Automatic annotation (TrEMBL):
<dbReference type="InterPro" id="IPR017106">
    <property type="entry name" value="Coatomer_gsu"/>
</dbReference>
<protein>
    <recommendedName>
        <fullName>Clathrin/coatomer adaptor adaptin-like N-terminal domain-containing protein</fullName>
    </recommendedName>
</protein>
<dbReference type="GO" id="GO:0005783">
    <property type="term" value="C:endoplasmic reticulum"/>
</dbReference>
<dbReference type="GO" id="GO:0006888">
    <property type="term" value="P:endoplasmic reticulum to Golgi vesicle-mediated transport"/>
</dbReference>
<dbReference type="GO" id="GO:0009306">
    <property type="term" value="P:protein secretion"/>
</dbReference>
<dbReference type="GO" id="GO:0030126">
    <property type="term" value="C:COPI vesicle coat"/>
</dbReference>
<dbReference type="GO" id="GO:0000139">
    <property type="term" value="C:Golgi membrane"/>
</dbReference>
<dbReference type="InterPro" id="IPR002553">
    <property type="entry name" value="Clathrin/coatomer_adapt-like_N"/>
</dbReference>
<dbReference type="GO" id="GO:0006891">
    <property type="term" value="P:intra-Golgi vesicle-mediated transport"/>
</dbReference>
<dbReference type="InterPro" id="IPR011989">
    <property type="entry name" value="ARM-like"/>
</dbReference>
<dbReference type="GO" id="GO:0006886">
    <property type="term" value="P:intracellular protein transport"/>
</dbReference>
<feature type="domain" description="Clathrin/coatomer adaptor adaptin-like N-terminal">
    <location>
        <begin position="4"/>
        <end position="297"/>
    </location>
</feature>
<dbReference type="InterPro" id="IPR016024">
    <property type="entry name" value="ARM-type_fold"/>
</dbReference>
<dbReference type="Pfam" id="PF01602">
    <property type="entry name" value="Adaptin_N"/>
</dbReference>
<dbReference type="GO" id="GO:0005793">
    <property type="term" value="C:endoplasmic reticulum-Golgi intermediate compartment"/>
</dbReference>
C-alpha cells in the first residue's frame, strides 16, 4: 500500500519476484499479476509507451508483459486465468498478442466447474466486443456451451457467438438460438435480441432472415419489456439498414393484429404513419391501420 504510488518501487518488486520460482504461493502470484497489470496500465496512461503497441514501451512494459505471458504456463488454474484475463484487457495490444491468452482461456470452457466456465465466458464475451476475430477460434466451444445447464453461461455463449460468427454461419446459429430462447427468462432474451440487432448491422445482407427471426418471437409468449426490445430493435434496424424498411413494417403490422400491449400498438401505428408513405406501396398498410381504428378503443 505504501509503494502503490511509487512506480520505481513497484517495478523493482515485480522484477524481484517475477523470476521463475521466486514465489511458491499461487495467491502471492495473483497479487503480483494484479500489481503488474496496474503498472502496465499506468505506463500507458502516463504516456510512456511509444507507438501503438505496449510492448514497444519502456523496459517495465516489456518485462511486465513477458511475466504475464509466463504465468499462462503455470500449473495453477487461478494464476493462468488471472494472467490471461489481465492480458486480454491490456490497452495497445494487437490481436495476435492475445492469441496465447485466448488459447489458455479456451481450455477453461470445458471445465467441470460452472464458476470457471462462467468467468471465462464473461471475459471472452467482453473481448469479443473489440476483437471478435481473435475470439472466433473458440466458436466450436461456444456452440457446445449453448446447451449448458447454467442459463447465464448459455446466454453469454450465444451473444458471443453472434459477435464472432461468420456470415455463412448465421443461419446455423439462428437455428440454435431459436430453441434456446423458448427456455430462458425475458431478461436473457432481451440480451440475445440486442446481439441479433448488432449481427444484422455487421451483415446487412442477412437482414431478411434476422428481422424475420425477431418478428417470429413477437408472436410467442413474452412480457412487455421483451416485446418492446424487439420492436425497438427492428425500428433501429430500419434506421440503420434502410433496405429492411418494407419487410420490417409488414412484420410489425402482423404483430399489432394480435398485440396485447396498447403502448406497442400505438408506437407501431405512429411508425407506420411516419414511414409508410415513403415506401413503394403505401396502400398495403391501410388495412392494418383501419383495423386498429375500428377494433381498438
Amino acid at each position: 500500500q505504501i509503494k502503490s504510488h511509487d512506480r520505481l518501487g513497484v517495478s523493482k518488486l515485480i522484477s524481484q519476484y517475477s523470476r521463475k520460482g521466486a514465489l511458491k504461493s499461487a495467491l502471492a502470484l495473483l497479487c503480483l499479476i494484479r500489481y503488474t497489470t496496474k503498472l502496465l496500465h499506468d505506463e500507458v496512461t502516463g504516456g510512456r509507451v511509444s507507438g501503438s503497441n505496449i510492448q514497444n514501451g519502456s523496459q517495465i512494459c516489456r518485462t511486465g508483459f513477458q511475466f504475464l505471458e509466463s504465468c499462462l504456463r503455470h500449473k495453477s488454474h487461478m494464476v493462468v486465468y488471472e494472467a490471461a484475463r489481465a492480458i486480454c484487457f491490456l490497452p495497445l495490444l494487437e490481436p495476435q498478442d492475445l492469441t496465447a491468452a485466448i488459447t489458455a482461456l479456451s481450455h477453461f470452457l470445458t471445465s467441470s466447474k460452472p464458476a470457471t466456465r462462467f468467468a471465462t465466458m464473461k471475459t471472452l464475451a467482453t473481448v469479443a466486443v473489440s476483437n471478435p476475430r481473435a475470439v472466433s477460434k473458440c466458436n466450436e466451444e461456444f456452440e457446445t456451451l449453448i446447451g449448458d445447464k447454467n442459463r447465464s453461461i448459455a446466454t453469454l455463449a450465444i451473444t458471443t457467438l453472434l459477435k464472432t460468427g461468420s456470415e455463412n454461419s448465421v443461419d446455423r446459429i439462428l437455428r440454435q438460438v431459436s430453441g434456446f430462447l423458448t427456455q430462458i427468462d425475458d431478461e436473457y432474451k432481451i440480451t440475445v435480441v440486442k446481439s441479433l440487432q448488432q449481427l444484422c448491422l455487421t451483415y446487412p445482407s442477412k437482414h431478411r432472415i434476422i428481422v424475420g427471426f425477431l418478428s417470429n418471437f413477437l408472436r410467442e409468449e413474452g412480457g412487455f419489456e421483451f416485446k418492446r426490445s424487439i420492436v425497438n430493435g427492428i425500428e433501429s434496424l430500419i434506421q440503420s439498414v434502410p433496405e429492411t424498411t418494407e419487410s420490417s413494417l409488414l412484420h410489425l403490422c402482423e404483430f399489432i393484429e394480435d398485440c396485447e400491449f396498447t403502448m406497442l400498438s400505438t408506437h407501431i401505428l405512429h411508425l407506420l404513419g411516419e414511414l409508410g408513405p415513403e415506401t413503394s406501396a403505401p396502400a398495403r398498410y391501410i388495412r392494418f391501420i383501419y383495423n386498429r381504428s375500428i377494433l381498438e378503443n
